[in-house]
Specification:
single chain; alpha/beta; two-stranded antiparallel ribbon; 13 helices; 44% helix; 11% strand
Length: 345
């Protein structure tokens, strides 16, 4: 993270933390990708989640973990670097995808960064996420930026196309340059407890990804219970998921803190069992800077500082960026700007 440093003007400036802090710009050691492991059905069936306890634990975060002033600005700049800027609409075009890519390259207005003393920091989005037909356009628009392109695949958002069709879509997206694949599982497999079939589905997509990282979307709002969510998380990781992700953003209920708690504790248990680090992506419904801070606090408390980097944590929420920018403008000027001053494509 970054800590406050005395400055001039309407707002204090921010500066990189010392070695004991959580750096805003941190280059971690390269991750070993999750190789997966054989499905352990006994371990899956032994998983239980106490919903009341999870909800009580999650409810403590917003009130107990707050940051203000320079520290809040620092956390919000960190949040920007963890966002997957996303456009998944039926009226998407190559032009609006290119605009989104431009926003990913420069997500915060330069004058705000200059006022905070952060102009030299590489503040950019974690990735750009699009449908398959726009992968090539996004790759071209982001060339040289280091920002990966993620493609939603496997018949997003339902995941109900024939397996051959879903795998062909993954293969095509990888061929067009997608560095990440966001696959949708068949939710009915979870609801019926068909864990071997779910494992086989994720493993087949993982094999088709090649070098592209695999983010597995569980569709948590449609899985009925936290126990189902935790079990599906575990099966996805055993099948080789590099990330587990809450939602498509199209469900009636998307990311929530209790769901996130259940999923990140499965990530922690998997690390303790296998030594492998798996990423987490809450997606859908995260629209305010305050919510982003709550999720960052959750990750820091449950998994530690290593998960505050884009190779292990992402927000799937484009609408979030506008509110974060407004909060940063308030930090610099003392006033909230109109949303059109922070335009999204």
């Amino acid at each position: 993270m970054i800590r406050p440093s005395a400055g001039t003007g309407t707002a204090a400036r921010v500066a990189p933390a010392d070695a004991g802090g959580t750096a805003l710009v941190h280059v971690p050691a390269p991750l070993v990708r999750n190789p997966g492991e054989p499905l352990d059905l006994a371990a899956v069936r032994a998983i239980r989640v106490n919903r009341s306890a999870a909800e009580r634990r999650a409810a403590t975060l917003p009130a107990r973990r707050t940051v203000k002033k320079q520290w809040q600005a620092a956390w919000l700049l960190k949040a920007v670097t963890l966002m997957d800027l996303t456009t998944l609409q039926g009226d998407d075009t190559p032009a609006n995808v290119r605009r989104l890519c431009a926003k990913a390259r420069q997500p915060v207005r330069p004058d705000l960064l200059e006022a905070m003393g952060a102009s030299a920091l590489p503040i950019r989005a974690g990735a750009v996420c699009v449908y398959h037909p726009f992968v090539a356009a996004a790759v071209d628009a982001l060339r040289g930026s280091g920002i990966p392109v993620a493609a939603v695949s496997t018949a997003f958002p339902s995941g109900l196309a024939p397996m051959a069709t879903r795998l062909a879509e993954v293969r095509a997206s990888v061929a067009d340059g997608a560095a990440e694949i966001d696959m949708v599982i068949t939710r009915g497999l979870v609801l019926r407890g068909e864990w071997q079939a779910l494992y086989d589905e994720v493993a087949a997509v993982r094999a088709m990804c090649g070098e592209a990282h695999l983010k597995v979307i569980l569709g948590t709002g449609e899985l009925a219970t936290l126990t189902n969510i935790a079990r599906a998380s575990w099966v996805a990781m055993q099948a080789g998921a590099d990330f587990i992700k809450t939602s498509t953003g199209k469900e009636s209920v998307n990311a929530t803190l209790p769901v996130s708690l259940a999923m990140v504790r499965m990530i922690r248990a998997y690390r303790e069992r296998s030594g492998v680090l798996v990423g987490y992506k809450p997606a859908g419904g995260i629209r305010t800077a305050k919510q982003a801070l709550d999720y960052l606090a959750l990750m820091k408390e449950e998994l530690g500082d290593r998960w505050l980097a884009p190779d292990l944590f992402r927000f799937g929420a484009s609408a979030l960026l506008t509110d974060v920018e407004r909060q940063l403008e308030h930090f610099v000027t003392g006033r909230y700007a109109a949303a059109h001053r922070m335009p999204m494509p």
